[in-house]
Task: inverse folding
């Protein structure tokens, strides 16, 4: 999935969240974040409560996904994935504990 | 070395840049130097056999074996480690010992450490290790410590003396903070301060750690958050050499009495800072790979202030 389509997905989810508040609960599509070139893409993603976000490592180097006190993946080798379901609204900052300059954020609404 | 006048009795701390560069040229007897952006940089080997004089302390640095790595940049990291160890075995003057500056394994698996041990032990040299971040990714973070951490403090730091040189192995790959760089932490810094306290300032110091202690390229995480504090404790010493791995390429810097030096990997090369989208493994032509992998040998001669560092690519 490309960066642009993920961003579009994020926007669609945000719109869906607004519509959902006026209708019955609608579950947002689950989201994927790719790890390429030591970068989380997209670095920021807005999702609805209940969304499962999956990180997939496409680098030749292992990475982790860690949000202090919230979630922590094991080391993801090439093509490994890690998923986390967000059940509470809030801002979830996360990073790679092996390469801490790699950071990202999930905004859960 | 006779081509230069090396007056090491001159204690003026404001030693001229020209003087430092001349001395660096001497210090790297076997290394061809170039000056890039005002900083000396080695281009490669110029006759290592002559440089390896039997007098003085000789030790080797090996780094970033990444046993378990099998991607296109080098599908056979075990094989290139084996080649490097083969060359070490062939050195005419047996070095006193070897230091390994981390990333022994790729994924901290027991089998990867087993393979690394099997190959490295063939050199029949004592090996002093510090861990890289790849050696600390097993769930309980215990495999490295069980194998290599005996007698060490904290996450694996320690010091020892050899032929009048004080060696300090530091760990800067644990407790890394989001958005940050390598990290030594308060406990280790306190230990370092105490380790150096009362030591004669004329003692040559060799510090080795995985991630560079100096700011090589923070954008790629190539530096240590609190490295400057460690260097503060080392300021008064006449000769300080800082060795590291992590960035898989040769790079040097001289700052006052401190010489910084990074070693090649035996597994795969990484790009020069900022020349690629990421610091990931760099695929090069197969016939070029071995010229970008290698080891370093370091010679300390009593009475001289500098260490001679000789980088040896697997293929010239």
Result:
């Amino acid at each position: 999935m490309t960066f642009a389509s993920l961003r579009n997905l994020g926007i669609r989810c945000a719109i869906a969240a607004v519509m959902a508040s006026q209708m019955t609960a609608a579950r947002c599509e689950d989201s994927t974040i790719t790890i390429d070139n030591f970068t989380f893409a997209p670095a920021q993603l807005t999702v609805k409560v209940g969304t499962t976000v999956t990180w997939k490592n496409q680098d030749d180097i292992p990475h982790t996904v860690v949000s202090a006190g919230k979630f922590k993946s094991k080391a993801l080798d090439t093509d490994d994935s890690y998923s986390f379901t967000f059940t509470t609204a809030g801002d979830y900052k996360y990073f790679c504990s092996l390469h801490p300059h790699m950071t990202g954020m999930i905004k859960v609404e | 070395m006779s081509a230069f006048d090396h007056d090491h009795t001159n204690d003026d701390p404001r030693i001229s840049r020209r003087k430092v560069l001349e001395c660096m040229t001497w210090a790297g007897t076997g290394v061809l130097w170039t000056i890039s952006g005002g900083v000396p940089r080695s281009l490669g080997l110029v006759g290592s056999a002559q440089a390896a004089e039997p007098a003085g302390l000789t030790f080797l640095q090996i780094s970033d074996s990444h046993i378990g790595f099998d991607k296109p940049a080098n599908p056979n990291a075990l094989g290139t480690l084996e080649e490097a160890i083969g060359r070490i075995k062939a050195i005419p003057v047996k070095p006193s010992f070897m230091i390994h500056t981390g990333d022994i394994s790729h994924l901290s698996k027991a089998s990867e450490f087993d393979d690394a041990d099997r190959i490295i032990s063939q050199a029949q040299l004592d090996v002093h290790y510090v861990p890289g971040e790849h050696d600390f990714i097993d769930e309980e973070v215990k495999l490295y410590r069980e194998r290599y951490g005996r007698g060490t403090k904290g996450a694996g730091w320690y010091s020892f003396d050899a032929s009048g040189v004080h060696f300090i192995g530091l760990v800067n790959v644990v407790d890394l903070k989001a958005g940050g760089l390598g990290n030594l932490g308060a406990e280790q810094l306190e230990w370092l301060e105490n380790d150096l306290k009362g030591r004669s300032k004329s003692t040559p110091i060799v510090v080795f750690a995985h991630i560079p202690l100096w700011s090589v390229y923070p954008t790629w995480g190539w530096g240590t958050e609190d490295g400057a504090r460690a260097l503060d404790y080392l300021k008064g010493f006449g000769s300080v050499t800082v060795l590291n791995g992590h960035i898989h390429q040769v790079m040097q810097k001289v700052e006052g009495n401190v010489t910084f030096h990074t070693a090649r990997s035996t597994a795969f090369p990484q790009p020069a800072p900022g020349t690629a989208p990421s610091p990931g493994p760099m695929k090069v032509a197969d016939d070029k790979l071995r010229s970008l992998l290698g080891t370093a040998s370091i010679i300390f001669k009593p009475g001289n202030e500098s260490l001679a560092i000789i980088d040896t690519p697997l293929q010239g």
User: Anything to note?
Assistant: Chain B touches chain A through 26 residues (CB under 8 Å). Confidence is low (pLDDT under 50) at residues 1-55 of chain B. The longest helix of chain B spans residues 77-90.
